[in-house]
Amino acid sequence: MFLLSRLRVIPIPALEDNYMYLIFAKDSNKALVVDPVEPKKAIEMSKREKVTIEGALITHHHWDHAGGNKALRALIPSIRIYGGDERVEEMDRKVVHEERIEECGLQIRCLSTPCHTRGHICYAVTSGEEKVVFTGDTLFVAGCGKFFEGTGDQMHRNLNEILSSLPDSTLVYPGHEYTTSNLKFAAHAEPENQEVAAKLEWSRKRDAEKKETVPSSIGEEKKINPFMRVHEKSVQKFVGSTDAVNVMTKLRDEKNNFRPKA
């Protein structure tokens, strides 16, 4: 597993397979919460950790990520809610691509990643040399989000230009626990990829132990995530194309129709 010495990131399972996150510097008593769809759970965790939630980072407007904002506001009236889409309820500040903000002693870089939704934001958070990124429904472990409001061209840019430019050591915290199903597709797309095979075996063990599979890292995703491997010959062969955007689009179509064996 990946270890952090300055930052504390706590995954909080929500709904059926969502993740909320509590994030704070270890020397601080102030915290941020990411996509707090079940705010009471997040507040309970903050009390356990002896920190006070002062801000919320919302990746996108879908109800399973932003649907707790009104309740959060009622519980913490002074909270500052950030988002990148006017459809995010209770939003105090709309952020844009490459905007940098400081909250609770943390440096936050806002990355616009439209496709799953047109106003999707990923948040790259830094404390000292440690870097993490909250990717919502843009990047999952070994997968990516559906193209509900965008195109393969946009998702290619999101994954293989914007997020892939982050340091390989950057830890990736996605919005859902989809790891095993994503890895099954990755193994289908690249049956000879031993990194995928090993990660799938590990993920299945974590599932059996009822443990989360987050975080991943940008460096690891480049090895196991077919959507971040569109330039690899093995992935191109799978979809029958060498054009990166076309590969991305065809991969998503294949994933949409993939029915894995148990």
TrEMBL record:
A GO molecular function assigned to this protein is: metal ion binding
Known EC number(s)? 3.1.2.6
Q: Which InterPro entries match?
A: Clx_II_MBL, HAGH_C, Hydroxyacylglutathione_Hdrlase, Metallo-B-lactamas, RibonucZ/Hydroxyglut_hydro
Ubl conjugation recorded as keyword: no
Q: Name one Pfam family in it.
A: Lactamase_B
Provide this UniProt record's keywords sorted from A to Z.
Hydrolase, Metal-binding, Zinc
**UniProt feature coiled coil, ranges:** none
Q: Which domain of life is it from?
A: Eukaryota
All residue ranges annotated as the Metallo-beta-lactamase domain in the record = 17-176
Matching NCBIfam families: GSH_gloB
- Homology family: Belongs to the metallo-beta-lactamase superfamily. Glyoxalase II family.
| Full protein name | hydroxyacylglutathione hydrolase
Lineage per the UniProt record? Eukaryota, Metazoa, Ecdysozoa, Nematoda, Chromadorea
